[in-house]
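Colleagues,

For the teaching module next term, I've prepared a clean inverse folding example: a structure given as tokens, and then the sequence designed for it. I'd like students to try predicting residues themselves before seeing the answer, so please don't circulate the second half yet.
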């Protein structure tokens, strides 16, 4: 198999795991099913179900609280999706463009931190103090 396609399959497999626990999951799932529907329509519904099963497994592993177990589950699931995506790309190299377009659309840009649970920011200032709080990137330029 073309090494470029194998690399793409690996990136997509990792993206499945990464996006499974984010707000972008539904978009990712629908995009992968759409690619499948275009090239292997008979398997598209099954792929959608398996994506949901993978997501539930990742969420369950994360909920158990053992980071090592969750990471191992993530690697297993990413590897399984890499193999499945590589098989699709081997049979239908034209799917690579669709998969690249999907991954580009799902890329959140610069790395973001996923926050789970409630977040409360609180600060007190007095005098001429300054307080800067952020839930993301913050760039402050003072002179």
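(Answer key — instructors only)
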């Amino acid at each position: 198999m073309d090494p470029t396609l194998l690399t793409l399959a690996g990136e997509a497999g990792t993206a499945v795991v990464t996006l499974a626990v984010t707000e972008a999951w539904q978009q990712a799932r629908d995009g992968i099913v759409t690619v499948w529907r275009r090239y292997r329509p008979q398997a598209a519904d099954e792929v959608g179900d398996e994506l949901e099963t993978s997501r539930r497994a990742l969420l369950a592993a994360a909920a158990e609280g053992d980071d090592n177990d969750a990471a191992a589950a993530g690697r297993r699931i990413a590897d399984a999706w890499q193999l499945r995506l590589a098989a699709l790309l081997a049979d239908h190299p034209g799917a690579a463009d669709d998969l690249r377009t999907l991954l580009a659309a799902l890329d959140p840009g610069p790395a973001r931190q996923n926050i789970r649970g409630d977040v409360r920011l609180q600060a007190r200032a007095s005098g001429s103090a300054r307080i800067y709080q952020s839930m993301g990137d913050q760039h402050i330029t003072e002179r």
